[in-house]
Every structure is written in C-alpha cells, then in structure tokens.
Amino acid sequence: MTTSTPVEKNMALLRTAYRWVESGDLDAAEQLLSEDFIANVPGSPDPLHGRETWRTGTQIMKDAFPDLKIDVQDMFGAGDKVTVLVHFQATHLGAFQQFEATGRRIGYRSVEVYRFDGDRIAEEWVAPDLISLFRQISSAPAPTPSR
Length: 147
Fold this sequence. Notes:
The protein is α+β, with helices and mostly antiparallel strands.
C-alpha cells in the first residue's frame, strides 16, 4: 500500500483543480479552495480575497479561451506550498481585457505558487506572461506560439 506525503497530496489536488478548470467544471474546482481564499495577481497592489474573486477571473479566461489547455511542465512542493510552471494553450474566441476575439491560437507560460491549508488551496501567487499573451491577441498578426 502506497501512502502519499502531504506535498504529494497537494500536488494531486492542484492537478485535479487544473483538470476541472480545463473541462469547465468551475463549481468543482471552486470547492477545492478554502472559504477565505487569497489571490495575489499582477496589477493588484493588494491581495484579493474570496472564492468569488477566483471564480470571476477564471470565468473571464474560460469565456475568452473556452478550449483552454493547461500543460504542467514542472511542479514541486515543500511544506504547505506547491510551485508550478504551466503552459496555457487555447483559441481566442471571446473578448479578453481590451481585446476582441481574434480566433487565433495562443500559448503562454505562467509561474504559480499555491499555499495549502489542510485539503484546500488557501492562497495563490500567479505570474502569467501577459506581455506574450497580449502580443498574440493584439490587432497585429502574431507569430504561432511555440513551446
């Protein structure tokens, strides 16, 4: 019988959350967050609080990029934290920020750190490569994303 360490359990929980986001089951993914979830995101001087903050941001992404695929390129953990290097790929089919849908395939990376509290994701720090994403969905033709 194999027993998992707390870090392995946290990594498995995060992979499950990513799968549910990919499939569009935001209700299931949201249940993996603590009630007092904290999001640390670019452009916000202060942390954002609550599951609804996560839900709103994730729904905006899924509306703009409904076929979003999340490729975990590296993942490691220590203590109550897990760090992930992810590569997102999708088709830009809805408005995102100030950019109307282009129908273009996009790809960009993000470095993300998650803190866990028990069997819930309690806090995230995300650092997506928004410059790369915005270049790909701007009005100028964008090069094909590469890995």
